[in-house]
Amino acid sequence: MNSRPGDSRTGARPLGPTTPGVTVRPAGADDIATLARVAAATFGLACPPSMSLDRVEAFIAEVLSPERFAGYLADPARHLLLAEGPGLALGYAMLVVGEPTDDDVRAAIRLRPTVELSKIYVLPQAHGTGAASLLMAAALEWARGVGAVGVWLGVNQQNERAQRFYGKSGFERVGTKRFLVGGVHEDDYVMERSLGPSAPDRGAHGST
């Protein structure tokens, strides 16, 4: 997954729709440090206020380190996207192909074959730039391209801002699951949307 069509370093057309000054492209091996930096800067923003800094930092060290991103990029079941502005990274997304491993998710989702939108985050300074909407559009486009008919995600039940964004992006709440952060389980909603031709597109604006 180190070289993909649409990589801006090659001068090729960025993947997906664009907003002036913001592009989205597939991430590659040269982006590992950037992905880890953006992930570390954004994960805590999506966590509930009750979550301790120690737990946030433990999750970042365990799941969002450069070494983990190197592994994600090498995994053929995963696809990573990077949103960029002029000279800087703005956010990223990660998708995972395949049947969910979580029993609660398997019972909740209705559409198969499916892709998980595992992560979609933008930096605070990117709010209002369209980066989140562009990342979402590119993620859904990629999922369609691999033959998925649905996309699902998990979102913390206290993260109302992200839930609004996902709702505007066509996702609906279909169930609940648990999510382990720093040795403690958090309560998530499971949300899903169809990738069919009649799937809603409500002009999403926002970010997680």
UniProtKB/TrEMBL annotation:
Gene Ontology molecular functions: acyltransferase activity, transferring groups other than amino-acyl groups
Superkingdom as given in the UniProt entry: Bacteria
PROSITE patterns found in the cross-reference section: GNAT (PS51186)
N-acetyltransferase domain sequence ranges: 22-196
Ranges for region Disordered: 1-24
InterPro entries from the UniProt entry: Acyl_CoA_acyltransferase (IPR016181), Bact_Acetyltransf (IPR050832), GNAT_dom (IPR000182)
Stored Pfam families: Acetyltransf_1 (PF00583)
Keywords: Acyltransferase, Transferase
Protein name according to UniProt: N-acetyltransferase
